[in-house]
Structure formats: C-alpha cells, structure tokens
Amino acid sequence: MRRPRTGARTVPRTRKARLRVAKADPWSVMKVSFLLSIAVGICTIIAVWVLWMVMDAMGVFSSIGDVIIEATGAEDGSGFDLEAFLSLPRVLMFTTLIAVIDVVLATALATLGAFIYNLSAGFVGGVEVTLAEDE
Fold this sequence. Notes:
Largest sheet: 2 strands, antiparallel
Transmembrane segments: 32-52, 91-117
Distance between the termini: 30 Å
Strand content: 5-15%
Shape: elongated
Domain DUF3566: 15-133
Protein name: Integral membrane protein
Order of helices and strands: EHHHHE
Strand order of the largest sheet: 1-2
Organism: Streptomyces xiamenensis
Low-confidence stretches: none
Pfam family, one: DUF3566
Helix content: 55-70%
C-alpha cells in the first residue's frame, strides 16, 4: 500500500543568530591562560626529557664531545666536557626555568590582552559572531 503524497518535500530551515563578544572577563582569561600555559610547560619538559634520552642513546653528546676535544687539541682530556655540561639534571633545570618564565609571561600577556580587548571593544563594539543551527 502506498502512502498518499501530502505535498512538496520540506527544505530544512537554518536558524542564524548574530552575537557580539562585547567583553572578555580578565579574571577568566587569566585562569584559563594559566592552566593552558602550565600544560604547555609540562609538555615542554617532557619533550625535552624524551629528546635528551634519544640523543644520549644515539651517542650524540659523546660524539660531539670527542670532536670538541680533538678540535681544541687537549690530549690529556682536560678540555671542555660536553657530556658533563649537558647533563640531564642541568638541561631539565634550565627547561623548567624557561617553562616557569613562560607560564608567568603567557598568563600576564593574556590578561593584558583581555584588558586591551575590553578597551577596544568599547570603541568599536566588539567581535560579531554568526551562529547557525540546522533544524
């Protein structure tokens, strides 16, 4: 049994809404940027650790250290010791210091950016965003 035709096929309608981001709360921006920069800092430390382990397993530091000793002409081994200079604790300490500085700077810059956005949004009205929803 066939269904009777009731009419033309309906086309789905799209609802649209135009919204404006008039203000960014600096406190929220600071909290989110702090957490994101902490995550980036942890990822940086882990990536440096993995890279150091791979390079050490490949013998990169000892090879470069041998080349430096040969280039400086120190036969008695009293030349520059690259392996001691680029030891894992020293590299991770330097990386952690850079990550902490990055956390502070990224958080401060994002918060400052929120203040600057709020000032400029007061003059020009903010960023307009069009949202669409299919029914």
